[in-house]
Structure formats: C-alpha cells, structure tokens
Amino acid sequence: MKFQKIVDDIYRLAVNIEDENYLFEGIWPIPHGISINAYLIKGEKNVLIDLTQDIMEFPKAITGQMEGLSLSVEDIDIIVVNHMEPDHAGWLLEFCKKNTKGVIYCTKKAIPLLEAFGRVPADRAVAITDGMTLEVGEYELQFFETPNIHWPETMMTYERKRKILFACDAFGSYGKVTEDAIFDDQLSEEKHAFFENEALRYYANIVAAFSGAVLKGLTKLSGLDVKIICPSHGIIWRENPGVIIDHYKRYAEYSKGPAEREITLVWSSMYGSTKSMLNLVVETIRKHKIPVHVYQAPGDDIGYILAGAWKSAGLIFGMPTYEYKVFPPMSHVIDELLVKKVTNKKVFRFGSYGWVGGAQRDFESKIEKSGWDLLGFYEWQGAPTREDEQALVQKIDAFCEELIKFTE
Fold first, then answer.
1. 217 in Cβ contact with 170 (< 8 Å)
2. Quick one: pLDDT at residue 118?
3. Which H/E stretch holds residue 34?
4. For residue 49, which of 123, 113, 129, 143 has the smallest C-alpha distance?
C-alpha cells in the first residue's frame, strides 16, 4: 500500500491483515481482513499517531510509506500512543531502537505498559492530562482520556484547527481497506453496508463489554466539532462522520435495551431430536415478520453469534439436556454472552431430554444474574410428537408477541 493524504500534510499510513486464517486478538475470525491505520503529520516537527503491529513485515511496509514522504523512522519527533494494545504499539520496541529522539505522549496509565510491552523507559514519555493541548508548528493537538474504550489507558487525539479526531479503536471496524476507497464518500452503498456489518461485529466482539464507557466517552466528546474521524481500523469518515458516531451510540445503547426487533436463535443437537424442531421454530418466528439469525453451536464462531445477539432484542436457545445440564457447547456460548454483558433480552429455550431433564434448571441458574427476561421454555422426551410441535408453536407465538410489545 502507499501513503494516503487526508488533508494538508496529514497522511494515513496503513496495512491490511488479509490472511483468512488469522484470528484477531487470537480469538475473532476476520475472513474479510482488517486494516491497521497509523497517521503522520509532517511539519516543523513530525508526528506519528499510533504505530502498527510487528508481524508480517508491517513495520517495513509503514517505513516504506514514510519514505515516500521523504521521511525515515529517525525523523519522527513526536510519537502519540493512543492505545498500547500490540496491534497499534507492537512496533514500539524496534521503532524506539532506531528513533532515540522521539518524545512519546500517552496517558499516565500507559506509561507502565511502555516498559511491559515495548521495553521503552518511562523517561521517554510525557503523561498527558485530560484536555491538554500541544502546539506542533501550525498544528494543535488536544488529548482526551477515554478510559475503557477499550483499555483503561486509552486516549484520543484531536487536531483542533482541522477538526480531526484520531479515535484509535473507537469508530473502527473489521474489513480490509483498499487504496482506492479509504474515505466514506468513496464507498458504494453495498460497501457501506459491508462496513456497517463489520463495525457491528467488531463492536460486539471487542467493545461491547465496555458500552457504559463508550456512552460516557461520546458524551465527553460531544462538544467537539468533528469534521473527520480517523480510526485505527477501517475507513476514514470525512463526508459524514456523524454516521459512524450514530452507529456506535446505537450499539452502546443496546446494552441498556431494548435492541432491534430481531431474534438470534442458537441451537445444538446431539442426535437430531432438538434439531427436528428448528425449522418449525424459525417458520413460526417469520410468521410474525420478525427477522431471525440462526447459529449452530458447535459450528458457528462465537464472534458471529455475539454480533447477532448484541443487536437482537430476543434470544432463543435450542439445546438438549446433557448429563442433567446444558449441552456443553451451548454452555460456552452462554458464558461468552454473559462475559460480553449481553443483557436486557427476552429469552426462550426449547430442547429434548432422555431419561430426565436438567438442562432447564441449569440454564436458569446460569442466567440468574444476566438481566435476561426468561419468557418461557418447552421440553419433551425423546423425539417430538405432533402434540409437542403444536405446543411449541403456541409458546413461540406468545414469545414473539411479547417481543413485539417490548420493542414498540
């Protein structure tokens, strides 16, 4: 990739992770890749805002883009570290070996991490204070602490004169970014829809548990006149930055409920008895004109299940009893949903059992402090009968009617 001009002497330096087998943060699948964006301000003093990960020759790629601007690593005077996570700061160790003059600006909480992650001594850093400004020639940088979006040491950087917000992990998304379409006004409607879906999945996977901090951060930054948003992952918003701000606000508010009038249905089956009711449940939901997202456990990755569950006001779990408890793969799904603080949901469960039940009791114990409203369940022994089918339809009908009321 080559450097891209944003405005004046402010540039995007970026790489894409394109390996379909790569797991972001070692967990999340990114079949469509992801960009890692750094930003360079060229002037009387040269400023690098965030770096890149020290993998796949990414530092070499960023160095090459800098050379296209007639700069080297040694020419950087100021290094702004908005966030110490290694996808943004992993290059810091080798970078600071070559660059011995650059002053690092970061939050106070980030300073111990400079040594822990990058073996960079604290005396190379300046701990910013919230709202602090730094004049760099014709540029004026202002730093804002935004803790837990999504690490405790995170901050954002605002260029006051051009009204650019360098937001790090906020307002980001999965999905690689091509050189011919790095700005929102360069995307087709189809590409906008793609990045919205990838932004939701990114949020649900990485940021969702910190939604309270996101809402506080949005309130804190609401007084800024933001013309351009430059995130560390995804496209740059210069035509209508309010779009991604609104998306993130909506995602964060799902944590308080209700979310969208949709249902995420996750199912498991040992020998087919629970699965045999799946199509009937889906057809009954669709009869109520409610979109339904269907996932299997095991089978579908938890990252996708999280995205569907975060957006949906209703959750339905279909799984059998296994050794008097919830089917183990489903237990893992439930645990992950609770860790990510998926809450304020209307919930239903159905499933088969053998000699005796037990899954329902275990399920209710697991979700006792979840903030989920269990509206009902239906169980049957062995293979379902016609009477079981009719009873389950009635239960799903009632669940859908309650969900509609909840989301009105």
1. yes
2. 83
3. strand 34-41
4. 143
Query: Alpha-carbon distance 245 to 165, whole Å?
Result: 12
Q: Please choose, from the candidates 255, 191, 174, the residue with its C-alpha nearest in 3D space to the C-alpha of residue 218.
A: 255
**CB atoms near residue 164 (< 10 Å):** 27
Using CB atoms within 10 Å of the CB of residue 69, give its burial: 0 to 12 exposed, 13 to 18 middle, 19+ buried: middle
Rounded Cα–Cα distance for residues 375 and 222 (Å): 38
Residue 168 region by backbone torsions, left for phi larger than 0, else alpha for psi between -120 and 50, else beta: left
Q: What is the pLDDT of residue 1?
A: 80
The token pair that represents 173 in the structure block? 């998304």
Task: Extract the tokens encoding 130.
Answer: 């919230």
Distance, CA of 368 to chain centre = 26
In a 10 Å sphere around its CB, with 0-12 CB exposed, 13-18 middle and 19+ buried, how is residue 355 labelled?
A: exposed
Which portions of the chain are predicted below pLDDT 70? none
Q: According to the model, what pLDDT value does residue 355 have?
A: 87
Q: What pTM was computed for the model? A: 0.94
pLDDT at 353: 96
Instruction: Determine the pLDDT at residue 117.
Output: 87
Return mean pLDDT, the chain: 96
Please calculate the CA angle 218-177-145 and round it to the nearest 5 degrees.
25
How far apart, in whole angstroms, are the C-alpha atoms of residue 41 and residue 39? 7
Residues 6+ apart with CB under 8 A from 9: 41, 42, 43
Token couple for 116: 């822990």
Tally the C-alpha atoms within 13 A of residue 93's C-alpha that lie toward its C-beta: 13
Which helix (H) or strand (E) is 328 found in, with range? helix 328-339
Handedness of CA 303, 306, 308, 311 (dihedral sign): negative
| DSSP character at residue 108 | G
Per-residue pLDDT tens digits for 101-114: 999 999 999 999 99
Indicate the angle between helix axes 189-202 and 242-253, nearest 10 degrees: 40
**H/E stretch holding 4:** strand 4-7
